[in-house]
Write the structure tokens for this entry.
Amino acid sequence: MHLARITSHSRLRALAACSFVLAFSAYARAEDHAERVAVLTLADDAVDESVSSAITAALRDAIKSTKDYALSDAHVSLDQLSMANDCDPGNPACLRRIAKSLSVDGLVYGSFGGKDKARLFVEIKYFDRAAPATQKRATYSFVSASPSEQDMHHAAQGLIADLLGLAAPSVAPVANDDVSEAPPWPDDSAKTKPKARGSVEPEYHEQASTHGMSGRRIAAYSLLGVAIASVGLSALSFVEIDKANADPTLYDYRLAVGVQNPMATDACAEADANKSYHLSPANFATVKSRCSTGSTFQVLQFVFLGAAVVSGGASAYLFLTDDSANRDRAGRRSAFALQPVVGRGSASLSARLRF
């Protein structure tokens, strides 16, 4: 003789399933914070391949050392990708197509410049799929055309920090002999040339962009809220059912039904048939009220559990497949950077606050 047809073990299993869906949705929400970035191979016929490969590897290591960015395992150059996609890499639409083909949120790519064979000049750029009209770049000038591994490591850390709006590296870039102006870049405007050797000088060409939460992400958050609320309401339904089952008047009615009608399988079904089994009118009214409450919440628990599973799963799907949100963090992130520039006869400290 019992009111609820669902056992406690069944309820626990249902709650466990809902908790798993919610946990997975939360995990998906956390995972999509890590922006996937591909560092494309830097290559130039005029630069020794071992040097260009080492600088590319240093840039990739710099990305790996960040907390908010995940490095893609793509090892290919921009020229190769533009040929494969049959598009002009100078066109943002081409870069967006390349980023999509690599399943990444951003591209770090670059080139070597300058006509001074005794020195090496590097320029890297960042393309953000969420803000294709916004281009960020940073340049670095090595004092030697064959820099050491340590020099390249320091330079890469500073370049990536400035490019992505991260905190300045703890170790200053290697100082060069002077801070005179470097030779101009061969195929670019005067704005893109390095300002000083041995220092990272980012050039930002930023256009107004609208930052906001996408409709897909709003829907994901809304569904996650529905899932959480549904789990809470399911738990409330379980409590109400157990509360009705534990009512002393209903307990006495079950005993009466068991003694007078051993073939009965559901006390509430007997109450619905208006069989009082010699209970007082007041007590019988209480029994019918408890049965009605229990039956109502018994139906609602199925509704809420189903809503929790469906909305939680949909929320996880939207978080995992969101293609636009969360990739403008670098543009919104405040950054304060201190950049030392040291020469043979002078030293300076450059401070930059970006917000």
The first strand starts at residue 35 and ends at 39. Residues 130 and 327 are 6 Å apart (CA to CA).
